[in-house]
Amino acid sequence: MQYFKKEIEVAGKKFVVESGKVAKQASGACTVTIGETVVLVTAVSSKEPKVGIDFMPLTVDYRERTYAAGKIPGGFFKREAKPRDSEILVSRIIDRSIRPLFPEYWRNDTQISAIVLSYDGVNDTEIASVIGTSVALITSDIPFTTPIACVRIGRVDGKFVINPTKEEQKTSDLDLLVSGTDEAVTMVEAASLEISETEMLEALELARNTVKAICEVQKAFPQKKKIEAAAPVYNAALKADIDAEAIAKAEEGVTIKDKDERESFWSNYKKDLTKRLLEKYPEEPASAISAILEDIYYVKARELVLNKKVRTDGRGFEEIRSITCETGFLPRAHGSALFTRGQTQALVSVTLGTPGDKQILDELAGESKDRFLLHYNFPGFSTGEPRGERSTSRREIGHGNLAKRALRAVLPKEEDFGYTIRIVSDILESNGSSSMASVCGGSLALFNAGVPVKAAVAGVAMGLIKEGDNYVVLTDIMGMEDHLGDMDFKVAGTKNGITALQMDIKISGLTHDILTKALDQAKRGRFFILDKMDSAISAPSSDLSVYAPRMETLKIPQNKIGELIGPGGKNIRKLQEATGAKVDIDEDGTVYISGIDNDGVLSAKAYVESLTVEVEVGKIYEGRITKIMAFGAFAEVLPGKEGLIHISQLSEKRVAKVEDAVSEGDTVTVKVLEIDKQGRVNLSIKAVNEGK
Known about the structure:
Layout: E1 4-10, E2 13-19, E3 28-34, E4 37-45, E5 58-64, H1 85-98, E6 110-118, H2 125-138, E7 149-156, E8 159-162, H3 166-169, E9 174-180, E10 185-195, H4 197-218, H5 236-253, H6 259-280, H7 286-306, E11 323-327, E12 335-341, E13 344-353, E14 359-363, E15 366-370, E16 372-377, H8 394-408, E17 420-429, H9 434-449, E18 458-467, E19 470-475, H10 479-484, E20 487-493, E21 498-505, H11 512-536, E22 550-555, H12 561-565, H13 570-579, E23 582-585, E24 590-595, H14 598-611, E25 620-629, E26 632-638, E27 641-646, E28 667-675, E29 681-684, H15 686-690
Helix pairs in contact: 1-2, 1-8, 4-11, 5-6, 5-7, 6-7, 8-9, 13-14
């Protein structure tokens, strides 16, 4: 492995790429440093291809070592365990960025490992990881020859910022991540606060130009001789026999509108033809016959759209499948909706919890809490497959994150709505765009739950089929169009603008005009879906579900937090036991009181409010006798605030013994006579009686 060290400058920040110093037994390896953030990326592949598979066996693992931030892992074992969701999401970004650029017939096991070795809390690890992956691949013997790069675009105070720092990202209304080559975009991931299509295009153009400059620098890096990824060579006679009858059958199959009928027709035909051909060509593998047939089907499905201007299910290019929306589908959930679009169906529920239900995130940047959770489930039965539910898949995590980003933009501020919000999307049927169905169903369920969101959010998946200068942009793609197309472009947003965007490109030559057309077409589709949703429920419900906890929020002085909690939590436990309410306290003094019983919540709120009230001279209070002494009695007039009723102030008559006038636990009406310099409160029952 040849040693080299190069600097790449991007918007005034230097990325230092170093190769040939560490991990030299990998096919390719490098470290990428920006500031004090260091990422090691390695690329390794097997020497021989896998036999009998029709996909590229690529694995990408992005991991963060806690020592990178000077931390020791939590938990019993004190070591890094399974990857966190945030690590899986970065792994997917790397995978989606590079996968389209491998040779079509590359079948060797390939693994990318990106390990964060140092983290300064300022600079992105995602950007360094993608750039490092490109360098590791192009300097290896793996047949990956086109450099790629990645850039993040933010917008702070109306101005675009290239690769904003973590601090700048906090005030940015756009988070756009773009990967690509010097000629084409390969991956886009974005979240925004309802920005327009024009503004998004402007940001994408800035990202493309920045990516191009980074790719140009990489072309000068040294490269090894590449392993050949040879295309399969088929028996000419076998191929001729297949073409003779399969072309007509494929043309017939791609026009069958129903998914199950279409798949059954083609599957049965493949089985029948394969059986007949293996009798004639016993030396040929069945996989070769299958590959030839799938190539034919692929070509005919694309020709149907490009040349005959017809979609498989008969829809127009901008036509959206039939939509039904049903809210309140589940009787006990705090909010729910059943959203169906064609043969894709999402059952989405909303659960409202207390601040104590927030998810605790232990990341390199430190511990934080998230009040908004969205979990996406894709069971096997949704596509008719007998597949058991085990651990959450990377795909489920990715789709859930996309839907979460789309909906987060419209959530109320925490100070206005203190609930923790959990959305669960269960996909009951799937034929394309289940993540966008989750967005639509999630918006409907939030409305049904009574969450005061800013606006409804809808999402639509766009597709592209392109041959040369001939192309068609498709709205609301189904599964087959996603598989056979050149682009999967998901756009979600409100009628005011885009809230989330995700794009994966399989080809080069995606022009500005095509992007503009796709975004404009997606906007029309989004508006159509929003109108359908509006007819089902046009505004958030005025009341929460009877099964949802009631919540009151108030703020107390920070110096009163300890008083509310009490020694060892004594006071707050006593309050919760007495009222049945749950009390959560933030460091800034914000108090969240929640419970199913509204009376208990209000009672707890009254107690907490009383902590901020100071005893006033001359004011009359209802007090409770807490202690009897020889010289008088102590009474609690406010929670935690006691005063002394001297024996001479117990009655207008002479009192020989305190016990003759009051007992512990008695409720008495007292007047505050004075508060001395030491803060001691003097009370009087006599003064109250004299004033009557």
